[in-house]
Design brief:
Layout lengths: L2 H26 L4 H12 L4 H4 L1 H7 L4 H24 L3 H6 L1 H25 L11 H13 L3 H10 L6 H30 L4 H36 L5 H19 L4 H13 L6 H25 L9 H28 L4 H33 L9 H21 L1
Helix pairs in contact: 1-2, 1-14, 2-14, 5-9, 5-13, 5-14, 7-8, 7-10, 7-15, 8-10, 8-16, 9-10, 9-16, 10-11, 10-16, 11-12, 11-13, 12-13, 15-16, 15-17, 16-17
Length: 413
């Protein structure tokens, strides 16, 4: 075993230990365990551990890309398995009954915070912009970051709160999946504007049409294929847990398909879970085997790694503290009011609409930070952000703006 492999195991052990302890503490006070796992990442990151003992923090979680890639691979696989489990627990009849509410919630929950984010971008000082002459592009990126939600957070909270088979839970899941699909479409358009000054119609059409074809094939021919594969595997193989292997292969294959058509892999994993969950021979024992692996290993690593990206020390700058508070206010008001309005228009009661608003307010945090981070990185790679002396302060401020979104995610989740 080499030094990098030993360090990777040490990272996993620490993340699992701290994440489990804090998750347990959160559940004992009536909160989802995911909050404790996110908090574990914040405590082990540069915000706390890095301040108390910076040498040890850098030794345990170095910034080397190769070392971080191993942790990210585990977390990415884990989130696919989480969406697989969520899909297996999804009741399509409830989803069908909640489709009107889900569409209304998703539409209003994206439109209102997107408009607020674009408006906020128009009033940011020039020192916060990568390119002052492209304020509109930055505003669009900011609007996207504040409007899209994280289906991963939604799925985790809905499962832990045992809302999966309730109308509110189905509405949350359905609207989150719509948010995810629409969000990637918005990102594709905005990225094309930033890189090429006009949207890439081919890429956009591929994503939209590809998603439609994927869903159509999945719920017709795909359903028969998955049912037949699980039955054949169960009847033919004599080795241990062959059905679990078949399910994971289906999940991975469908995730790759959605990746190829330009949509996030979680959509493929979620649809795979729905198809697997409808299989007539699927046993509770298989479901429990998958659930134990995800809850014990993959989820703590994924959410703790998300918390590791937050650096609360940037709040020492009063300007960034004000920006962070502004982002929290805009995102919280936009998501809550948008989801509440959508739920009301969709025929939900006031109590159900309030619950939707609160859940969507939390769910944008993980996804919004990631969208903004990738957008800034892509623009830097494309050469849109210059490295000359005049732009030095502006580049630093742009990075600080992205970091502020990370602080918002960690502090408000």
């Amino acid at each position: 075993m080499g030094p990098s492999e030993a360090l990777f195991i040490a990272q996993i052990v620490v993340l699992l230990l701290v994440g489990r302890l804090l998750g347990e503490a959160m559940q004992r006070i009536g909160q989802p365990a995911v909050m404790g796992q996110l908090l574990a990442g914040v405590l082990l990151g540069p915000s706390v551990f890095g301040v108390v003992w910076p040498e040890a923090q850098q030794a345990l979680f170095p910034a080397a890309r190769e070392q971080r890639a191993m942790l990210e691979a585990v977390s990415n696989l884990g989130i696919l398995m989480l969406l697989l489990l969520t899909g297996m627990e999804t009741d399509l009849k409830l989803v069908s009954n909640a489709r009107r509410a889900a569409i209304c919630v998703s539409t209003a929950g994206i439109a209102l915070p997107f408009a607020l984010g674009v408006t906020l971008g128009q009033f940011l000082p020039e020192s916060m912009l990568p390119r002052p002459d492209e304020r509109l592009i930055t505003s669009l990126f900011l609007g996207t970051a504040l409007s899209v939600a994280s289906v991963k957070i939604v799925a985790t909270v809905v499962r832990e709160m045992k809302f999966v088979r309730r109308k509110v839970g189905m509405t949350l899941l359905a609207s989150a999946i719509i948010d995810d699909t629409v969000g990637w479409t918005i990102i594709a358009i905005t990225a094309s504007l930033a890189l090429h000054r006009h949207p890439n119609a081919t890429t956009l059409a591929q994503s939209v049409l590809g998603t439609g074809i994927f869903l159509l094939v999945s719920f017709t021919l795909g359903r028969r294929f998955v049912f037949g594969l699980i039955r054949w595997t169960n009847d033919t193989f004599i080795s241990e847990v062959p059905v679990v292997t078949a399910i994971l292969i289906v999940m991975g294959g469908m995730a790759l398909v959605t990746h190829l058509i330009g949509v996030h892999t979680v959509l493929g994993a979620f649809v795979a879970g729905i198809l697997v969950g409808e299989s007539p021979i699927l046993s509770r024992h298989i479901d429990e085997q998958l659930r134990g692996l995800v809850a014990a290993l993959f989820m703590p690593v994924f959410f703790a790694l998300a918390g590791l990206n937050a650096n609360l020390s940037i709040l020492a700058d009063p300007r960034l503290l004000g920006l962070t508070c502004g982002l929290i206010a805009v995102a919280s008001v936009g998501k809550f009011c948008g989801a509440f309005l959508g739920g009301t228009l969709g025929g939900l009661s006031g109590r159900e609409s309030t619950a939707l608003g609160l859940r969507h307010e939390r769910a944008w945090l993980d996804r919004g930070h990631r969208c903004f981070h990738r957008a800034v990185a892509r623009r830097a790679q494309s050469g849109s952000v210059h490295d000359d002396r005049d732009d030095g302060d502006r580049d630093h401020a742009c990075h600080a703006t992205e970091s502020a979104l990370g602080v918002v995610k960690a502090s408000a989740a």
